[in-house]
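Regression test attached.
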Amino acid sequence: MIIAIGVFVSLPARAQDTDVMTDEHIARIKLNCASALATLGQIKTNDALVYVNRNQSYFSISDKLIARLNSRLALNRFDTTPLAKIATEYNSALTDFRTAYNDYSRVMTDLVKIDCSRQPVGFYDKVGEAREMRQDVYDAIKKLHTIIDQYRQAVDTFKQQHLTKLKANTNE
Amino acid sequence: MSEDHSLAGEPNKAWYQTRIVLFIGGSIGVALLLVLISMALYVSSGAAQLDLSRPGYQSVQNKVDPSDKFKSFPASGTVNEATIDQFQKLYQDQVNKVTATDAFNPDVLSNQALGIDAPGADQ
């Protein structure tokens, strides 16, 4: 039992399965610390602007285009089930985008506060975490764009399926 | 009698002062609690991420796209072929502005881009 405890105590206290960083790597991080932090600060500021504009645009697509067409079609007694389904998926994807960005923003806020000259390993790991969260935001945007295209195709399909009735309404 | 009055007034005065202190302290405590709740809601609701008046974001405050630039589709009216054509054109015009540009590409946070990659690493 004593031997088992001794073996356990002698194990390295690394919880991560990443490669051990060399002294040269740590020195490089410390050397480029200031420029890395400056770059991250600029990215963080620019991200905020991009998010505000994108969030506004995506919301407007839902509120001022998709919802309005669905509503107008329903008022004119067209079957909007496929379009409404896509609208629901779009709103869900929009929520996912906002959540992903909120999580990413929090990590970036913590990241730019790290003194990488004193905590190079922690800084390096946090950059990796921020990169993963940014990937999540990127994926959420891709999903939104996919659904946007799906809605466009669904409207095309709707038009083809109801062409006769639409033409009849034109003649009225 | 005046002695009785003065003797009875002392505890009342002390209790009155205690109540004043408790009232002020309680008011400050309630105000602080409400501030904490407000800040928690501000952060958790996502409003913080939309607020460019925060310190450090002054440089981009005036670069936000005005919301009234987005052309909306009328929610009422008849629906005919021309209506659908109108929507399709409007939709494509508005959507192209958003989908044409890439955003939040993770490559900008690569180790190479930040200069924190391992020396001599060919990644």
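Expected vs. actual: identical. Chain A touches chain B through 72 residues (CB under 8 Å).
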